[in-house]
Each structure stands twice: as structure tokens, then as C-alpha cells.
Amino acid sequence: MWSQFRHAHSACVTSLTFSPHVGLYSHLLCSTSGDETVALWDYYSGVSIARLRHHREPVNHALFLPDEPHHLLTASDDGSIALWDLRRPDHPLGSLHDFPEGVNKVILLPLSCLPERGEGSPAFPRPRYLTGSACDDGKVYLHGVYALSDAPNDGEVTFASSMTIGVLLDSFWASVSTVNDLVWIPETELLLTASEDGALRGWRLGVDPTTPPQERLLQNLDDFENPVNHVVKVPEGWMDPPAGAGIASSSRSPSPASASPPCWVLAASSEGVFGIALTAPDGAPDPDVRTFIGHGDYVRGMSFTPARTLLTVSDDRTAIEWALPTAEPIRQVQLHEGLVMASALSAAGDAFASGSDTGEIRVWRLPFQTERLVG
Asked: Which of 32, 237, 248, 288 lies 20 to 30 A from 63 at CA?
């Protein structure tokens, strides 16, 4: 184990993320919690750096901005997303408040996904970022977020308050219940949502905001028996067997040489993880599904290691490392005495963080060495 923060939070750890800006923040880990706070840690030295206090309900997710190394977005059950400058962590720079219920996840989308503006629609200046948010009310929200220096002040956009950092550009119903996660799939130009009603759905973006959900929906994978908690995109080629391994990668017929290879996604539902191949251009799923079965309780996180393996964490207190081409477990390691609720992998792939339902955070060196194997 690299470091341990026994009392990192007074409630469960809801998410973990490492700063990708290793040149500036070489060992920075961010955690969010049900105790309504966000915490920053130097996991190399084991030192607490800062505690961000603003949200009034549990904080569910944090996102470092890719080209703003000091800036962080946080999403909360209080129905807001806050923007922070890590150099001044005493209060956020501003917030988004267009959510009637909690926000579970926020991601960045390419600006090519900006909604079309119909005749008579208000004219918005081009934003710095486009965010997509998965929410408890069953909707996905798209916001244009502006750098503070770029925030329009010439009357084109009227902000609700001086603290607002962007504008709501679009929203649509993605589920009859909570949307737990979402991921952008560039190969098929689909936004995938994972929801509490046991479905993965693929959505077309860049449409007029008045477009009804049924005209946005391109794929509806609703065969899951339990809620879908997480969805991730697999790096290209990682589901294929190594050359000469003699492993059949799929039961389907060989594709023509000119066909694009499928894009694989992994969906966590209850204690299982399911690998689904989506084919271009519309993201149609291949009937061959690869299943990763080994955990004894809900899967709470999925990460990809430099060894081209999958790491999953679960309420069963463990992590399992998997061979992606075969869906076979390589090793299972106990991480905590309590439920494992969140995990993250560092940019270099040498550190793996896990957080528990008791508020404890542990950071592990990879590959696992001295940790206790299960079984």
C-alpha cells in the first residue's frame, strides 16, 4: 500500500479521481463524499492539502478540466455543479443551478455536439466547454461552460446571477428513473447513458433542443435484470486476443476487411460486468456479450491498467483484475474491511485509489504485490 487516509471523510467516499496534470500536481488525488465535502490529497506524502466546502448535500463526482490544470468541477445531490480554482479552495468560482434534483456525473463533450439553434432561438456565444450531466430526475443536461474571462457580458446572455458559469443549452429524458452514468463514444457519435431502470441507451446529440427523446434515441439495450451503475469505453484493440493466442474474440462471422472494428463498452450491473461491442456507424450492438463474473456484490468502479487489464471494485470489499480478451480473472485482492464504493487509477498507471463506505481512502502501488489475495 502506498498511503492510507483512515478518516478521510465522515461518510462514504462517492468518487475518486487523480489529477491528469502531473507536471504541476504530480501526486494529487481528489475525493468526494456523502459528508458534503471534496478533499484534496498528496497521496505520495500522505498529506491532506485542502477541504472544499460549499455543497449542501452529498457530492457525487469531480472532474479536472483538461486544459485548465487548476480548475475542478464537482457535482452534488444539491442540484448544482460547482467550478473551483484549486489555488483558492475556500469557495467556488461559480456554479450551475439548472438541476431540479441531484447530479450524479458530469463529463466533457466535444463542441461538435453543441445543439442546433432553431429559428428564433437565443444566440449564445460559443462556450469554452460543453458538459453533459447524468441526473436523478432521469434527464441528461447539456451546458455551455465559459472560462471566467470569456463569460459574455455584452447582453447576448443574461446569467441568473454573477456566480453562474454557463448556460443550459439542452436537456432530454433518458430514463424513467435515475441516470447513473454516461460516456461519449466518438466512433459511433453516441452518448451512452446507464440508468436505474436496467438499460444502456445511445443518444444522438447536436440536434435542435425541441427534438423529442424518441427521435434522439438510436440504441436501447434494456435487457439488464438490475440497474446499470457504470459504463466505460474500452481502449481500442484491448478486447482482442494477443497475436497467436488462438482465442476466438467473438462468435460472429468475420467482418469485411473494409469494415470498422467494433467499439467495446463495459457496463456494470449488480455484481456483473458485461462487455458489449458496438458497430459503426449507428452503434448497433453485437449479440455476442462478454461477461465478467466473479464479484459477490455490486460493482462500483472500473479502470484500465497499463498491462491492458481491467480492474473492478465491489461492495464485496475486493478488487478483481481481469484479462480483457477472455473475461477471466487474474487475481482478486481484498482492499478494505468495509464496502468499496469508489476507485481511480493514476495517469501513470502506477497508483490505484480505493474508497470505502466508512470514509477511508487507500492508495495502492500497481502491480499489486503484498496485498492479501482472496480465495
From this structure: 237
Domain boundaries, the chain: 9-116+124-240+261-301
CA distance 325 to 45: 37
DSSP string, 92-129: -SEEE---SS-EEEEEEE-GGGPPP--TTPPP-PPPSE
CA–CA separation, 192 vs 180, rounded Å?
11
- Within a 13 Å sphere around the CA of 332, how many CA atoms are in the beta-carbon half? 13
pLDDT tens for each residue of 148-193:
654 444 444 433 334 689 999 999 999 999 999 999 999 999 999 9
Helices (H), the chain: 213-216
Percent pLDDT > 70 in the chain is: 88
* 9-116+124-240+261-301: CATH number: 2.130.10.10
Residue 209 CB contacts under 8 Å (≥ 6 apart), including other chains: 115, 118, 121, 169, 170, 171
**N- to C-terminal Cα distance for the chain?**
20
pTM of the model: 0.91
Cis peptide upstream of residue 367 (ω within 30 degrees of 0): yes
> Dihedral sign, CA of 176, 178, 181, 184?
positive
| Residue among 71, 84, 188, 76 nearest 134 (CA) | 76
